Amino acid sequence: MTEEQTRSLLLVALGATATWLWWSHAALDYVRPSLEPYLLAGGLVLLLLGLLPPLGLLRRRASGAADGDDRRHPGGRVGWLLLVPVLVVALVQPAALGSYAVSGRPAVPGGAGGAFSPLAPPVRGAVPMSLAEFVTRALRDRNRSLDGVRVRLVGFVAPQAGVGGYRLTRFVIFCCAADAEALQVDVRGDLVRRGRDQWLEVEGRWLPRPATDDDGPDVPPPALTVDAVRPIAQPRLPYEYTIRYGG
Predict the structure, then answer these.
(1) 0.90 exceeded by the pTM?
(2) Could you tell me if 221 and 147 are in contact, meaning their C-beta atoms sit under 8 angstroms apart?
């Protein structure tokens, strides 16, 4: 195989992988939804470059080109390393970030304080709320809009080493999984042993911290006393995409 054929084959493999990630929505494990169209566009461009003349696999072979040309171009062999990420995606299919990634990611203490918009109306007896909104209101809303309100949160289990219990966790990303930050809520009162990374829908009420607690950068996550817990499948959108709430 010539160096040009190798280059074209690699372009086709990379383009096909990018297109498959878009088609299967597996890309949502790595990037925010708004980037999916760009992934598709990039995949199609790579496929065209790899398949169509004058550069692609479908071009006519130049007269006199020898099959052993690659031996005169050692760079062609190095190019096969580009197949490594393709094989990882195809064979391993890395999942969205989970509990093992929490320790290596900064925790989000909530947005800036200020005026908060009214809560959404209850649905089936509880206010559906993102973890970002709950954390922000619990830590920054001086009007205590969560007092006595039954909320419904969705996240996965991150066990607390040496403490017992768990934290309901979800990542917020701004571009892709590389810039993810952790959102966490201490769950109190769930007596069932939950599996690591198990996705849950939790209903309960905010448990305010004592007013004397430090409000510095290492402030602990807010706590929730549970009323009901329901195991669920991982949502189609595993991440949250904003932490901006309030004024």
Answers:
(1) no
(2) no
